[in-house]
Amino acid sequence: MTNTMSLRTMAKMKSVSPSARTWRRFFKGPIGWVSVATVVGIVLLGVFGPLFVTYPGSYGSAPPLAPPSVEYWFGTDSLGRSVFDQVVWGTRTSLIVVLAAGTVATLLGAVIGIASAYSRHIDAFFAVIIDVMLALPVLPLMIVVTALLGSSLTTMVLVLGFFSWPEIARIIRSNALTIVHQPYVEGARAIGASPVRIMWKEVLPMVSPLLIVNALLTGSRAVIGEAGLSFLGLGDPNTWSWGKILYEAQRDAVMVVAWWQTLFPSLLILLLVLSATTIGVRYNDSRMQKFTGV
Amino acid sequence: MDQPTVLDVRNLSVDFETEIGIVNAVSDVSFSLKKGETLAIVGESGSGKTTTINAVLGLLTGNGRVTSGNILFQGKNLAGLPEKEYRKIRGAHLGLVPQDPMSNLNPVLTIGDQVGEALLVHDRATKANVADKVVSILEMAGLGSSSTRLKQYPHQFSGGMRQRVLIGIGLACNPEVLIADEPTSALDVTVQKQILDHLATLTTERGTAMILITHDLGLAAERSEKIIVMRNGRIVEQGQSAEILNNPQHEYTKRLVSAAPSIASTRYDTRSPQVGKARPTEHTKILTVERLEKTYQVRDSNTRRKRRFHAVNDVSFEIEQGKTLAIVGESGSGKSTIARLILRLEEPDSGTISFRGRNMATIRGRELKELRSHMQPVFQDPYSSLNPMASIGELIEEPLKVHGIGNKQTRKRTAVDLLGQVSLDESLYDRFISELSGGQRQRIAIARGLALEPELMICDEPVSALDVIVQAQILELLKRLQSERKLSYLFISHDLAVVRMVAHEVLVMQQGTVIERAHAAQLFENPQEEYTKKLLASIPGREILAG
Fold it and tell me: What is the pLDDT averaged over residues B199-220?
């Protein structure tokens, strides 16, 4: 048999680095490619799109409520503005919100999660806070807080970030708990490493894959959160975002008539959430960090 | 005398389909087993011994399959038998005693249910009489007051008792062949001896043929008539036990025989006292431990009441420079706790640990960090004791970085130099430990321990996770480093045979207290305490070698 190899050659084969193996598995089959391409496409649209598209101002020159055509790809709204332009500019805003909120949530979640796993005192304090925050109805609270603080991009980022970290913290904590009891962490203590160094150098790298996955999942939730808040009119009134397009459609009571005004932003929300989640899940499945044996 | 053959395996080959292609795990394995015979399959991890028996039992995982060969059980070929047919044979005619008693019983079912299941699925009992039959099986397996045990759960049983339950399950349907896959490697030596004695009695009584899978050649020789030595999925040698042990033909078997600690250590009998005499008697005590105590609060599993559990009870000892003190004991004897207390991974309740003129038990902060640099640990499991996300260079340099010694270049030079000292290639510097074998990983752990040039190394079961040949190499390395660097070791092990090879002085512990303390040669030649004698008698392969 030509493709049979002995255990010895297998041992040699295994010297592919773990990350190379993960990515090879990730890109095996179309799902990996398609989801990454989608996210990259949306990001490119958000970064470079506004360079080519004029900002949709307060009044448009096009006929109002025109269905999609060669001239206006995504149709126009009731004020005669191109929905395509709105979507392009909205992509930028939505991405900024999602990235910033995701970063806030991931940082808070990672720091609190790892520290809770490492120190019992910190854990005792944050366990209560995390439980309470997870038990609270998030959406009504976000609405109240945003309404009180006044709607702006910064508020949106902070509100989304602040209400998303407990889930990350809880997952990272439970993952880190199994790691802080590994002999190698004790070994680091025995050579005199400080707690901060242990958390940073020994624990964080081991939880980072899970952190990446959860950052992606939190990011996708933030997309929906942003759209939800903007749809309710709590977004920044001065910038376009996907949620704002939907909000305007709803405000002008054209949701039933002008399907294009809701379909395209919703489609982008769906695509981004779906592919970010797929990337997260697939990445998690592709890497199999094992402690023992083959 | 000539018994009929019950199991005849001919030219068995097993392939696994993996991501990187087809891997041949077992090739061309042939052996036969007669009624009432015991056959041992010996080999290091990855040698294909477990895969072989899984193939025989039809328990290969989804990606594995028998590519050629026959498995003739009582004249019937089992290779390629449909699962439905196999189920009738497995358990009823081919019994299995699995390796780890801790994970092979379902924690949420009672013992009675689990033993009864084996009988019920093969219609060897009815719902009405299953309880009675289970009681008699448990009694046969050596568990007294079996009727009350029926309603108990696995967590109420010790490791040895659980293994007895598993033996009961394996033998429940009176199989013609019993396959025992490392049945005692997770157990203490004294328990191991009891279990194996019992297993031998049972199989002899019933005329059951047994296949014993083990990594311990001494144990195999003691317990079986025939031995198969496997390596890389092939049989390298097979024959009568005594023949293999005394007159190994194959190069690998020779190495295996000479490395087996239970066998190798007898050779050190004569040597170690001489070594002791040859050295000038120096009395530089490097570590002095006095009246060390540690208790834990535990909840009694039966009464649910809190009580204090004495893990370490009034332990005192000292270690001289350049010498090895070994602490021996069974699991739960407190030996690892002592290591953890000395490393200050746990706080002692009372007692002093004098190291470099300071009391390690009470200092903290900067002082503790400084003292820790003179005392380095090597842990048991080289798979979990090294950070899998760090490169080998980073691992070895980490202690230097933590203590702020040297700069980038000097640290790298030290690391490369240390790789050489533990006989590893310096090209490993940028690689990751996931690419290394257990023995190589343990070398990395030792190199890392040496980075700060400590005076004392605390080795907690440093070789018990390794295969025998690798074990011998690591012990050899530790000895070489000791003589080169005048290192002192605190060597913790459950394996007396290993201790015999390295220790100058031995501390025998039981339930947190020191039972006996003596020079190594003296302890092994002339043990004073009953418990020590029992431990020594439990080393497998002893009688064979004495004779």
Answer: 88
Angle at B480 between CA B475 and CA B486, to 5 degrees: 115
Report the relative pairing of strands B38-42 and B209-214 from DSSP bridges: parallel
Indicate whether B40 and B74 sit together in one domain.
yes
Residue B335: give the domain boundaries.
266-374+454-546
On whether the CB atoms of residues B508 and B515 are closer than 8 A, the answer is yes
Q: Does A18 touch chain B (CB under 8 A)?
A: yes
**Does residue B20 sit at the A interface (CB-CB below 8 Å)?**
yes
What is chain A's pLDDT, residue by residue, as a tens digit (294 residues)?
334 444 444 444 445 566 777 788 888 888 889 999 999 999 999 999 888 888 887 777 778 777 888 888 888 887 888 888 889 998 998 899 889 999 999 999 999 999 999 988 999 999 999 999 999 888 888 889 988 988 888 888 999 999 999 999 999 999 999 999 888 998 898 888 899 999 998 999 889 888 988 998 898 889 898 898 888 888 888 888 898 889 988 888 887 888 888 899 899 999 999 999 999 888 888 876 543 333
Best of B398, B431, B440, B452 to substitute, by most chain A Cβ atoms within 10 angstroms, is B398
Structural domains in chain B (count): 3
Residue of chain B minimizing CA distance to A9:
B23
Residue B296, domain member (yes or no): yes
Q: Which of residues 25-84 of B touch A (CB under 8 A)?
A: 25, 45-46
Is B377 close to A187, i.e. CB distance below 8 A? yes
Name residue, tokens 């019983």.
Answer: B105
Q: Are B46 and B230 in contact (CB under 8 A)?
A: no
pLDDT of A125-148, one tens digit each? Answer: 999 999 999 998 888 888 899 889
Residue ending a domain, choose from B453, B470, B489: B453
A186–B379 C-beta distance less than 8 A? yes
Same domain assignment for residues B324 and B310: yes
Using the Cβ of A190 and the Cβ atoms of chain B, whether some distance falls under 8 Å is answered with yes
CATH number at residue B9: 3.40.50.300
Q: Which of B343, B376, B388 sits opposite A291 (nearest CB)?
A: B388
CB contact under 8 A, B402 and A3: no
Same-domain check for residues B189 and B279: no
Which of B22, B345, B387 lies closest to A190 in CB terms? Answer: B345
**Does B39 map to a domain?**
yes
Using an 8 Å CB-CB cutoff, list chain B residues near A201. 387, 390, 398
Same-domain status, B94 and B239: yes
Best mutation target, A185, A191, A196, to test chain B (most B CBs within 10 A): A191
B364 to chain A: closest CA residue: A192
Residue B134 and residue B242 in one domain: yes
Q: Any chain B CB within 8 A of the CB of A186?
A: yes
CB < 8 Å from A in window 453-482 of B: 458
In a domain, B382, yes or no: no
Helices B468-485 and B251-259, packing angle to 10 deg? 60
If asked whether residues B38 and B161 sit together in one domain, one would say yes
The verdict on a CB contact (< 8 Å) between B388 and A201 is no
Q: At what angle do helices B130-140 and B159-171 cross, to 10 degrees?
A: 120
Per residue in B428-455, pLDDT tens? 888 888 778 888 899 999 999 999 999 9
Shortest alpha-carbon distance between residue A178 and chain B (Å): 11
Distance separating alpha carbons of residues B199 and B183, to the nearest angstrom: 10
Taking an 8 Å cut-off on Cβ atoms, the answer to whether A186 and B398 are in contact is no
CB-closest option in B385, B402, B458 to A184: B385
Look at residues B321, B291, B316, B295 and name the one whose alpha carbon lies nearest to residue B307: B295
Both B434 and B496 in a single domain? Answer: no
What domains can you pick out in chain A, each with its CATH number?
Answer: 86-286 (1.10.3720.10)
Final residue belonging to a domain, choices B228, B259, B290: B259
Q: B515 with B392, same domain?
A: no
pLDDT in tens, A242-284: 988 899 888 888 878 888 888 998 999 999 999 999 998 888 8
- B475 lies in some domain: yes
Please give the Cα distance from B95 to B212 (Å, whole number). 12
The residues, any chain, with a CB within 8 Å of residue B507's CB and separated by 6 or more, are B317, B325, B326, B327, B328, B514, B516, B517
Cα torsion A271, A274, A275, A281 to 10°: value is: 180
